[in-house]
Amino acid sequence: MFETMSYSGNKEKDYELVLKQLEALISDETDTIANLANASALLYQFLDKVNWTGFYLWKDGELVLGPFQGLPACVRIGFGKGVCGTAVETRRTQLVPDVHQFPGHIACDSASQSEIVVPIIIDGEIFGVLDIDSPVKNRFDKVDQKYLEKFVEVLIPSLK
After folding, report:
1. What is the pLDDT of residue 1?
2. Domain 11-159 belongs to what topology?
3. What is the pTM of this model?
4. What is the Cα–Cα distance from 152 to 42, expressed in whole angstroms?
């Protein structure tokens, strides 16, 4: 069902293919954890120069570790804490070129140098975040932000 991607050299075209692959992965599945697990695996295989892709889920006023790919991670993150908690607090994507310059950054993996976190909002309520780390500074740009936000939009109907 899933094939390893071959890159076209066109970042936007490659992301469009990943969105189609996500749709295929989640189209017949209603289990939230299964869909989040496959979504994190898909991104981990697709994105180059990343060391962690996954989800934190909003539970009882804090983010709790969900399905992911990469090294073991922080289990709980408070509202407004670190990049993930800031994404929840602001309800906006956090694009961080250098995590060491981000006030209050939580270092789950000391190799991480840059990060992007997309909040997942369903019916006006925080569901969680998509969190991706890279061992390279300035790894993520506005194209990544645009398509990772679309990735979350495609994923949301399978999380209800």
Report:
1. 42
2. Beta-Lactamase (3.30.450)
3. 0.93
4. 13
